[in-house]
Amino acid sequence: MSEPIAVDGAESLPERVPVEVAVGVLVERDADGREGRFLLTSRPAGKVYAGFWEFPGGKLEAGETVEQALRRELIEEIGITIGAVHPWRELVMDYPHARVRLNFCKVFDWTGEFEMREAQAMAWQTLPVEVAPVLPGTIPVLRWFAEERGHAGPTHRETPAG
Ligand SMILES: Nc1nc2c([nH]c(=O)n2[C@H]2C[C@H](O)[C@@H](COP(=O)(O)OP(=O)(O)OP(=O)(O)O)O2)c(=O)[nH]1
């Protein structure tokens, strides 16, 4: 067991090594290749941030690449087999429970029927996103979409519509 480290303030805490996470941004495209709706899923009961909306994915297992992890996670969680994986953006998030590096990949092709295998909910969304609340680490992605799509105004709501 390592000794606890005495620190004066949070700024002197050693940086935590991020856990690598593969995240799938499934996007529908029309015949002209224009991007439309994207898929969000809700985090299952029992996980941190249960009920928050996110892009499906999960942590890399030992020896896996981002692409391998994404293929495995999307079969395990939502029952689909994905085609080409397009690495898009990376983002490090420092949560109290973990420091994670989110490796966001766009996916335009998949086969199989969507099946929520962890009793999550799924929702095809455009901007502004109607489902709420959205996971903090998902909000920057909505901003990137807004930039790509020339969307002005809010990207999501803080609380569910009602
Ligand atoms: N899947 C996903 N995770 C995200 C997003 N944004 C974000 O901050 N995260 C964070 C939440 C978690 O801390 C981490 C993903 O870990 P997880 O707990 O969902 O992974 P997992 O499915 O492998 O879970 P487990 O087997 O360890 O329970 O990344 C996102 O858009 N999608």
UniProtKB/TrEMBL annotation:
<keyword id="KW-0515">Mutator protein</keyword>
<dbReference type="Pfam" id="PF00293">
    <property type="entry name" value="NUDIX"/>
</dbReference>
<keyword id="KW-0479">Metal-binding</keyword>
<dbReference type="GO" id="GO:0046872">
    <property type="term" value="F:metal ion binding"/>
</dbReference>
<dbReference type="GO" id="GO:0035539">
    <property type="term" value="F:8-oxo-7,8-dihydrodeoxyguanosine triphosphate pyrophosphatase activity"/>
</dbReference>
<protein>
    <recommendedName>
        <fullName>8-oxo-dGTP diphosphatase</fullName>
        <ecNumber>3.6.1.55</ecNumber>
    </recommendedName>
</protein>
<comment type="similarity">
    <text>Belongs to the Nudix hydrolase family.</text>
</comment>
<dbReference type="InterPro" id="IPR020476">
    <property type="entry name" value="Nudix_hydrolase"/>
</dbReference>
<dbReference type="GO" id="GO:0008413">
    <property type="term" value="F:8-oxo-7,8-dihydroguanosine triphosphate pyrophosphatase activity"/>
</dbReference>
<feature type="domain" description="Nudix hydrolase">
    <location>
        <begin position="18"/>
        <end position="147"/>
    </location>
</feature>
<dbReference type="GO" id="GO:0006281">
    <property type="term" value="P:DNA repair"/>
</dbReference>
<dbReference type="GO" id="GO:0044716">
    <property type="term" value="F:8-oxo-GDP phosphatase activity"/>
</dbReference>
<dbReference type="GO" id="GO:0044715">
    <property type="term" value="F:8-oxo-dGDP phosphatase activity"/>
</dbReference>
<dbReference type="InterPro" id="IPR047127">
    <property type="entry name" value="MutT-like"/>
</dbReference>
<keyword id="KW-0234">DNA repair</keyword>
<dbReference type="InterPro" id="IPR000086">
    <property type="entry name" value="NUDIX_hydrolase_dom"/>
</dbReference>
<dbReference type="InterPro" id="IPR020084">
    <property type="entry name" value="NUDIX_hydrolase_CS"/>
</dbReference>
<dbReference type="InterPro" id="IPR015797">
    <property type="entry name" value="NUDIX_hydrolase-like_dom_sf"/>
</dbReference>
<keyword id="KW-0227">DNA damage</keyword>
<keyword id="KW-0235">DNA replication</keyword>
<keyword id="KW-0378">Hydrolase</keyword>
<keyword id="KW-0460">Magnesium</keyword>
<dbReference type="GO" id="GO:0006260">
    <property type="term" value="P:DNA replication"/>
</dbReference>
